[in-house]
Amino acid sequence: MPKSKSVNTTPAIDSVPFLHVNKHGDVILDIQVIPNASKTQVDGLYGAPDPIALKIRLASPPVDGKANAARVT
Question: How far is CA 67 from its chain centroid?
C-alpha cells in the first residue's frame, strides 16, 4: 500500500498581504474599517494595485466608540 502524502491547503502567511507574524509569533491582521455602512461585512481587499489590508464595513457609526467596539468583536 503506498504511503499517503499530507497536503497543506492553507496558504502560507507570506502569500497573504494583510497577515504578518511579529517577533513573538503573534499573527497581525491589517484591516481598513469603513464605519456607517449599510451592513457589517468583509468587503474584499483594500489598496490597489497591491492590497495592503482586509476591508471591513461596519454598520456602527463612528460616534462614541461604537465602531471601535464593533470592530473588536
Answer: 16
pLDDT digits (tens, 9 = 90+) for 13-27: 778 888 988 899 898
3 state SS of 46: strand
Q: Which residues contact 28 (CB under 8 A, 6 or more apart)?
A: 19, 20, 21, 22
Look-up of cell digits 497577515: 19
Pairwise CA distance, residues 66 & 73, whole Å? 11
- Other C-beta atoms closer than 10 Å to the C-beta of 49 total 4
Q: 25-32, long-range: CB within 8 Å, 24+ apart, which pairs?
A: 29/54, 30/54, 31/55, 31/56, 31/71, 32/56
57 close to 43: Cβ distance less than 8 angstroms? yes
